[in-house]
Amino acid sequence: MTSKPVKPLLEIQNLDVTLKNRDSYFKALDDLSFNVLPGEILGLVGESGAGKSMTGSAILGLIEPPLFISKGKIIFKGKRIEENAISVRGSMISMIFQDPLVSLNPLRKIGDQLVETIRTHINIDKAEAITYAKNLLEEVGIDRERFNAYPHTFSGGMRQRVVIALALAPNPSLIIADEPTSALDVSVQALILALLKRLCKERGTSIILITHDMGVIAETTDRVAVLYSGRLSEIGKTSEVLNSPKHPYTQGLIAATPRIDADSLKTKLYQIPGTMPDLSEIPDGCPFHQRCSKSIPKCSENNPPLLYDRASCWLLEKESV
Ligand SMILES: Nc1ncnc2c1ncn2[C@@H]1O[C@H](COP(=O)(O)OP(=O)(O)O)[C@@H](O)[C@H]1O
Ligand SMILES: [Mg+2]
After folding, report:
1. Neighbour order of strands in the sheet with 24-36
2. Are residues 245 and 251 in contact, defined by beta-carbon separation less than 8 angstroms?
3. Which of 65, 69, 210, 317 is the most exposed place for a label (fewest CB within 10 A)?
4. Torsion over CA of 292, 297, 302 and 304, rounded to 10 degrees?
5. How much distance in Å is there from the Cα of 48 to the middle of ligand 2?
6. If you take atom 8 of ligand 1, which residue's CA is the nearest one?
7. What is the mean pLDDT of the chain?
8. Which element (helix H / strand E) includes 138?
9. Which domains are assigned to the chain?
10. Is residue 320's pLDDT more than 80?
């Protein structure tokens, strides 16, 4: 017996985002395709400049000149997003940024900000919204008595908890969290990620978790998509990708992640040689081939497609995955 395939919440299909610079055109996202299933946490990982935030902006309908969507589709709940970007923003899709102060108004009490967000999206009266807001504060681990406090009276971690409450307030189907804990201490980071994960799993909310940190991917996500120069390098279940990475870029990212054990403390941490190229300097062929220790002649000639639904690397042709 085969079970019915789950309908994706979000589908990104062959998406290109192009940057127009005078008379030149550069691809910031190149033929990007992936899905997000209901209730899952999908990680988007890659070095700075990989196109992670651009992907989030495209989903939110926030691509603006000199950038434009030059190919492909984004489908949310079966509807193309370009058609309903306004209604999608902030209600069915919420956003969490790295810096909580981007989302919080420093001049207004956190309770007022929560109540306003709730009443923008949900048709309830003020008294009900206040109760709802206080309950949300409690759920994210903040005393409901702090309802009338201003953002500056909170620590960074507590502020990010308020931002999570704001993101959850409209009861979204999807939260895009762009480096939500990169500005926090490691110990606080783990607590915030665990909180976000628990609350979303309880509600069945999907998350796209954007991070440069493979440790965060390992702790938090169900599946992971690895981006490089705006292209999908590898995608799969997090446990499979981390235990058996197929793309040399993924292998490099994992090897470059600090571990705290006796053996790794004795050895110097691996670094992938070189840096991610600027958009104007992406080479022909596989965009990673100049930094790849395993590249073969074909890698500089042709850009590999996603093979076996897993990795965009010509080496997979030789391997049965
Ligand atoms: N407004 C913009 N104008 C020109 N180039 C941009 C703009 N925003 C992003 N880029 C470029 O697009 C690429 C992807 O950026 P981004 O998605 O922000 O990367 P990251 O993976 O670090 O989030 C980078 O090369 C970046 O320099
Ligand atoms: Mg970014």
Report:
1. 24-36, 10-21, 67-76, 79-80
2. yes
3. 65
4. -50
5. 7
6. 54
7. 93
8. helix 126-139
9. 10-92+170-318 (3.40.50.300)
10. no
Strands 41-45 and 174-178: unpaired
Whether 265 shows a pLDDT value over 90: the answer reads no
What does the pLDDT read at residue 47? Answer: 96
Confidence of residue 38 (pLDDT cuts 50, 70, 90): very high
Residue 172 in tokens: 């979204």
Q: Specify the residue for token string 């956190």.
A: 110
Instruction: Name the closest-CA residue to atom 20, ligand 1.
Output: 49
Residue whose CA is closest, atom 4 of ligand 1? 19
What's residue 2's pLDDT? 61
Within 13 Å, how many C-alpha atoms sit on residue 35's CB side?
A: 12
Percent of the chain with pLDDT over 90: 83
Helices then strands (H, E): number in the chain?
Answer: 12, 10
User: Confidence class of residue 80 from pLDDT cuts 50, 70 and 90?
Assistant: confident
Average pLDDT over residues 141-155: 96
List own/partner pairs for 34-37 with CB under 8 A and 24 or more apart: 34/225, 34/232, 34/235, 35/8, 35/10, 35/11, 36/8, 36/9, 36/10, 36/174, 36/206, 36/208, 37/6, 37/8, 37/9, 37/206
The phi, psi pair for 24, rounded to 5°, reads -105, 150
Other beta carbons less than 10 A from residue 116's beta carbon: 16
Ligand 2 centroid–CA 176 distance in Å is 12
Q: Per-residue pLDDT averaged across 68-80, rounded? A: 92
- β-pairing, 223-228 with 231-237? antiparallel
Q: Which residues are CB-contacts of 197 (< 8 A; sequence separation ≥ 6)?
A: 41, 207, 220
Token digits for 85? 């970007």
